[in-house]
Amino acid sequence: MPPTRRTDVVLLAVAVVWGSSYLSAKTATATTPVLLVLFVRYALSALASVAAVAAVRGRTGPLTRDEALRGSLLGVTQAAVLVLETYGVAHTTAANAGLIISLTLVLTPLLDRAGRPGGPPPPFFLAAGVCVAGVGLLVSGTGLRAPGAGDLLMLAAAVVRAGHVVLVGRLTTGRAIRPLQLTTVQVVVGTALFLPFAATGLPELARIDAVTWAQLAYLALFCGLFAFLAQTWAVQRTSATRASLLLGTEPVWALLVGIGFGGEHLTALSALGAALIVTGTYWGQAVERRTRQPRPTVTDRLPEPEPTA
Q1: Please, which pLDDT band fits residue 177 given cuts at 50, 70 and 90?
Q2: Angle in degrees, CA 261, 23, 43, rounded to 5
Q3: What is d(CA 193, CA 215) in angstroms, rounded to the nearest whole number?
Q4: Confidence bin at 105 (pLDDT 50/70/90)
Q5: Contact (Cβ atoms closer than 8 angstroms) between residue 250 and residue 95
Q6: What is the value of pTM for the model shown?
Q7: 64 by DSSP, 3-state: which?
Q8: DSSP assignment of 78-128, as one string?
């Protein structure tokens, strides 16, 4: 297989894994409290990440002060994203969750350019409007209605996730910060944050069945550690544009997995909304790439590595 094709396959694998994470999270939270799911997911990710850092420590050196400080702050914002995402997917469909969270790709350039001269051009706002209209139709079901609690939580998660991505760029651009070490600090901080809230439910871990444990392990190791490392490896071997297009297929996979394996379905209005979200997201990405400033910004790094719900 040619190297370019191999890189594309890896990036598509990451998008598929991230897209499938919403159904896995929804299924896990159906039998296990959300905060306990988050704690176990973080704890498993932390164990794997710490082991990986220990394995390469002899070649890469110890954790730096910058990595510890910035990783701690990003660990807090990342935890906020996953709280909203996990509670959101517990109260909506996996397909809806994956499509709504894709608005992050449109919201991130808006937040990144906030307060800076030369905002996005008018076509970008038209693309964002298409996305908003798509969300309205997606959550309408059989007729126009107010979005449910889960849909609103996913919208909030998209906003917070976009802010987290911007913050990652602001804190790491131009600094000698290693991605694996930064991620390890984030998941260790997340584990510490969720432990007090999950402590009373820890005895329930003994009653979790093998299927739920498999889902939690999948979320932690595949949707977290594997996806991050694979993304980092692939992005170093292809263009940012090609990577963003391939990784941007995440909501499509979320939709297909939710319908194919979760027994979910879309009405005609919801299907039209899904199409508008995907169209608006890709249109917004294309406009943003064409008008991007030569200097490096956080949008040059989309999407940033982070576990997804």
Answers
A1: confident
A2: 135
A3: 22
A4: confident
A5: no
A6: 0.80
A7: coil
A8: HHHHHHHHHHHHHTS-HHHHHHHHTTHHHHHHHHHHTTSSS---HHHHHHH
In the prediction, which pLDDT does 142 show?
A: 54
Identify which of 263, 47, 277 has the alpha carbon closest to the alpha carbon of residue 151: 277
Going by the DSSP 8-state scheme, the letter that residue 267 receives in this structure is: -
Q: In whole angstroms, what separates CA 147 from the centre of its chain?
A: 21
Structural contact between residues 303 and 105, judged by C-beta atoms closer than 8 angstroms: yes
pLDDT of residue 89: 92
Backbone angles phi, psi at 51, to 5 degrees: -65, -40
Residue of 169, 189, 150 lying closest to 305 (CA atoms):
169
What does the radius of gyration of the chain's CA atoms come to, in whole angstroms?
A: 19
Q: Provide the pLDDT confidence category of residue 114 given band limits of 50, 70 and 90.
A: low
Rounded Cα–Cα distance for residues 226 and 91 (Å): 27
Contact 42, 184 (CB under 8 A): no
CB atoms within 10 A of CB 145: 10
If phi > 0 it is left, if psi is from -120 to 50 it is alpha, else beta; for residue 174 that is left
Longest dimension (CA), the chain: 60
Token pair in block for residue 145: 């209605």
Indicate the DSSP class of residue 201.
Answer: G
Decide: 160 and 107 in contact? Cβ < 8 Å.
no
The two structure tokens encoding residue 210 = 């093998």
* C-alpha to C-alpha distance for 144 and 158, rounded to whole angstroms: 22
Place of tokens 């802010």: 163
Residue closest to 223 by CA, chosen among 71, 34, 86:
86
The one-letter amino acid at 236 = Q
